[in-house]
Amino acid sequence: MNKLFKIKYLNKNGSVLLLTLLILSSMLTIALGGANLIAQGINMNRIQMNSTQALFAADSGTERILFLSRKNEAFYGTNLTNCGIDPNFYLSFPAADTPVCQNNPNLATATVTLDSDGSTYKVKASSSASMYTFFTKGSYRGTNRTVEIFFK
Question: What is the pTM of this model?
Fold first, then answer.
């Protein structure tokens, strides 16, 4: 059988070249598939890092609301009831202890520096008769994450 293979296939001109090209193209296909998997993994890792940073920024806004509510008993009564008739409003923090109500979401940004690129969060509040709801939206490099808390 081995002798038959040698006689039948190896005596033809170009058959070794064709076999070599077939093997090399198979190896190239496997290598490109592996490179594609690695590139997708790197991209997913970058997206996860940005998502984590955005979540940290949103959590920072939530922690600030919790801190202000525990530190200042009048946080709900005076500061938030003066936000007007609109039940949905945004908060900005020009001073450490005093949130300011804004109807324009572009004005209600507090910058939290988590690394050299920085990240931001916005606090949106909603009030009803006996409940305040806070939505903090953290942003980092185009990735947004939101955390919601509410109080009675």
Answer: 0.68
